[in-house]
Amino acid sequence: MDPIIQVKHLCKTFQVKGSQVDAAKDISFDIERGDIFGIIGLSGAGKSTLVRCLNLLEMPTSGEVIVDGKSLTELSDAELRFVRRDIGMIFQHFNLLMQKSVLDNVCFPLKIAGVKKQEARERAMELLRTVGLEDKAGAYPAQLSGGQKQRVAIARVLASNPKILLCDEATSALDPQTTKSILGLLRTINETYGITIVVITHEMAVVQEICHHVAVLDEGVLAESGTVQDLFRAPKTEAARRLILTGTEQLSRMRGGTAVRVTFSGQSSFEPMIANLILEYKMPVNILFADTKNINGSAEGEMILQLPDVKDTAERMIQDLRAKRLGVEVLEHYVG
Amino acid sequence: MLDKDMIWMLVEGTRDTLYMTLMATLFGYLFGLPMGITLMVTAKEGIQPTSRVKQKVYAIIYKVLDVIVNIARSIPFLILMILVIPVTKAIVGKSYGSAATIVPLTIAAAPFIARMVESSLQEVDRGVIEAAQSMGAGLWRIIWSVLLVEARTSLLIGVTIALGTILGYSAMAGAVGGGGLGDIAIRYGYYRYQTDVMLVTIVVLVVLVQILQSIGMMLSRKLDRRRA
């Protein structure tokens, strides 16, 4: 275990017109070196505040943030600026210098670090090649698409050779296709440079696509954390369940019967489990939703079934499914 | 009426007016720009330092500067001119003529410029400032490479407005022997009832403002990279 980021009892309170808002309440977690770590939550859950505490853009009210062995809150302004060069950040709205060319944008962190102009330009061109935008070096951000702007931002953030990359809703302003390609680029960066990536998002799909570990935030509280697989197969908290089931919200309008969410990995044998259930109990089973997702390269299936409106039968069906080593959760909340 | 002497006088007047306006704008920015930057940075919504002590210092600096600027801005220029005569005498050696007028013009322009600079810099996207901070940029770097660069279009429009306003003030200085076109308009147009001279000075002033305005707008548009 070699955590690069340690968050210890972090609290952040804002004073908004005399009243207190707790954006982070006693949050503790570790992020391993080389990991892609997701922080997921609905809007207003405190994700952005939390990620801003990781490079002290936001000063925690109390608690500690330890990055690479250094406690950030104890550093002087000059030391903090130095440490920040190791912690890159990309944003939802890219935050490029609009009056500067793409090349100058990528050179900017090098200028801050005092790198000579010629050397900076060479490095910037190399990075633009990495993100596939070498032909846009002379263009201005206003002439680029959202995806291209985010690529420039990624090239810019890589310029200072960071150890950590914070992504604050980095794909939330992009279409699904562009999101996929940006996430692909982030994964490549993680693999080739070994940069630890922290992904802030409200979309489960983003977490499933690239994260290894995930923390679920709910109203400023860390609801649960663990591997993405575990969260997907067996969410322990209501907050996590809500995030996983976004996309299937329409089910709440269904009436009658018991709904269950069944998860299975791609490796499990394709036994005709639903057909078997129907044959055995002579009762209908309705498939309300089914999907297969790619989580870190392994196929994870999920299905929401509506079981018969007979309590006893439904109970036994669930036991049967569990006996087949499938993940089963009863969704009282969503049907009824 | 509009004989050779009169035309020569108008040319000289125009030259003096331009001299006063440009010098006062230059000096106005020399003081107003740092003041405007300081106002923007130290404001509550500005670029707050991390330490509590420094935050307190910022708040005090802002309050003091804010009060000074507001007081200076509320003194009418005509009164300010008379009020600062001792200062003018100490700097220039006399209290009349175009060189002397530059002193009260600068004092009047600086706080007004400070406010315009402050509001131009406030237009800079917070996210871009945050991005620079996340890269480890210090305050000076942010001011120099982010604020002034990103706000340059708005700052240039501010310069254009300042030039027009200061030109207007310089004409007012004519009432107390300030020199330039305003001086001519008052001496000939008002005291001697030479309406034609008055009209010519007005035309020249209008043309001057138009030219300054056009150059300023053209430059700011040319330097704006936000259009695709």
Report on this model:
The complex is a heterodimer of chains A (336) and B (228). Chain A has 336 residues and is an alpha/beta fold. Chain A has helices spanning 47-54, 77-84, 102-112, 117-130, 146-158, 176-193, 204-210, 228-233, 238-244, 273-281, 311-323; strands at 3-16, 19-32, 36-40, 62-67, 70-71, 87-91, 164-168, 196-201, 213-218, 221-227, 258-265, 286-295, 298-307, 327-330. In chain A, helix 3 packs across helix 4, helix 4 (117-130) packs across helix 5 (146-158) and helix 5 packs parallel to helix 6. Chain B has a single domain, classed as MetI-like fold (Orthogonal Bundle). In chain B, helix 9 packs antiparallel against helix 10 (195-222). Chain B is elongated. Classes of the chains: A alpha/beta (336), B mainly alpha (228). At the A-B interface, helix 2, strand 6, helix 3 and helix 5 of A face helix 6 and helix 7 of B.
List keywords for this structure.
heterodimer; A: 336 residues; alpha/beta; Rossmann fold; Alpha-Beta Plaits; 6-stranded mixed beta sheet; 14 strands; globular; B: 228 residues; MetI-like fold
Walk me through the topology.
The complex is a heterodimer of chains A (336) and B (228).
Chain A: E1 3-16, E2 19-32, E3 36-40, H1 47-54, E4 62-67, E5 70-71, H2 77-84, E6 87-91, H3 102-112, H4 117-130, H5 146-158, E7 164-168, H6 176-193, E8 196-201, H7 204-210, E9 213-218, E10 221-227, H8 228-233, H9 238-244, E11 258-265, H10 273-281, E12 286-295, E13 298-307, H11 311-323, E14 327-330
Parallel strand pairs in A: 3-8, 3-9, 6-7, 7-8
Antiparallel strand pairs in A: 1-2, 1-4, 4-5, 9-10, 11-13, 11-14, 12-13
Helix pairs in contact in A: 3-4, 3-5, 4-5, 5-6
Chain B: H1 4-42, H2 52-74, H3 77-83, H4 85-92, H5 98-122, H6 126-134, H7 139-150, H8 152-172, H9 181-191, H10 195-222
Helix pairs in contact in B: 1-2, 1-5, 1-8, 1-9, 2-5, 4-5, 5-8, 8-10, 9-10
CATH architecture of the largest domain in chain A: 3-Layer(aba) Sandwich
CATH class of the largest domain in chain A: Alpha Beta
The shape of chain B is: elongated
Radius of gyration of chain B: 21 Å
Number of strands of chain A: 14
Main sheet overview of chain A: 6 strands, mixed
Strand content of chain B: under 5%
**Secondary structure tally, helices of chain A:** 11
Secondary-structure element order of chain B, N to C: HHHHHHHHHH
**Number of structural domains of chain B:** 1
Helical content of chain A stands at 25-40%
CATH class of chain B: Mainly Alpha
Query: What amount of the residues of chain A lies in strands?
Result: 25-35%
CATH superfamily of chain B: MetI-like
